[in-house]
Amino acid sequence: MSPESTGQNEHYLTVFRRGFRTWRGNRPFWAGLFTILGGLPIAYFPYANMHLGNMTIAMSTTAGAGSLIIGVLLVTLGLTMWFHHIVRVFAGVAAILLALISIPVANIGGFIIGFLFSLLGGALSISWVPGEAKSGPASEGAQGEAPRMPEQDQGFHDTAEAPRKPLLFDVAAEGDGGSHRAG
Fold first, then answer.
1. How many CA atoms lie within 13 A of 96 on its CB side?
2. Are 85 and 11 a contacting pair, CB within 8 Å?
3. Which value, in Å, is the radius of gyration of the alpha carbons in the chain?
4. Rounded Cα distance, 122 and 116, in Å
5. Which letter does DSSP use for residue 145 in this model?
6. Closest Cα partner for 132 from 168, 176, 181, 92?
7. Is the Cβ–Cβ distance between 39 and 74 less than 8 Å?
8. What is the mean pLDDT of residues 111-117?
9. Residue 111: pLDDT band by 50, 70, 90 thresholds?
10. How far apart are CA 127 and CA 8, in angstroms?
11. How far apart are CA 99 and CA 41, in angstroms?
12. Residue 122: which residues within 8 A CB-CB, separation 6 or more?
């Protein structure tokens, strides 16, 4: 067994954490999380009752159904950002519009908390772009172009040393110590 192999004796939490980091890095995770966190107070506050001693304060308004619909739609849009990230721009625009509509409809947008989280989640969703594959000499060779040799190896060699083969991977990409691009 080589030292580079992960082996079969890794703890299951380590394997789960790596898998979750990979899953999280391939989609607008934080945008979905903030949108879900914004939808919860918008849907909750119109139906909440606070108890102060013997007195009950009800936050119920005539727009309780509208608040519930807006909150459920924001939670649904957050889950859509996670599991169907192709429509992230639509989901982001819809989350921003629902956040703006929640100000007059849902108790000042869930007492500003839900409004701000939903607005932030929608903006993050619109601005998120999937990472591009790194292009290197190996990918150029696959597209029909021959990989170029470094400038020092071109030409004649007056020693017995054979010309070096081009590297098939990008050395600069490994400079980060193998850490994930998102963290």
1. 12
2. no
3. 26
4. 10
5. P
6. 181
7. yes
8. 92
9. confident
10. 39
11. 12
12. 31, 35, 91, 92, 93, 94, 95, 96, 99
Q: Which residues contact 95 (CB under 8 A, 6 or more apart)?
A: 35, 38, 74, 77, 78, 118, 119, 121, 122, 125
Residue whose tokens read 């969703």? 125
List Cα–Cα distances, 87 to 90, 93, 182, in angstroms. Answer: 5, 10, 21
CA 47 to chain centre: 31
**Nearest in space to 81 (alpha carbons), one of 120, 24, 28:** 28
| Segments of the chain assigned E as strands | 49-52, 55-58
Distance CA 89, CA 123 (A): 9
Residue 72 CA to residue 116 CA, distance in Å, equals: 16
Are 77 and 37 contacting, i.e. CB atoms less than 8 angstroms apart? no
Token pair recorded at residue 177? 């110590």
Indicate the SS3 state at residue 138.
helix
- What are the tokens at 147? 């990989």
pLDDT-above-90 percentage for the chain: 34
Contact indicator for 136, 126 with CB cutoff of 8 Å: no
- Tell me the pTM: 0.64
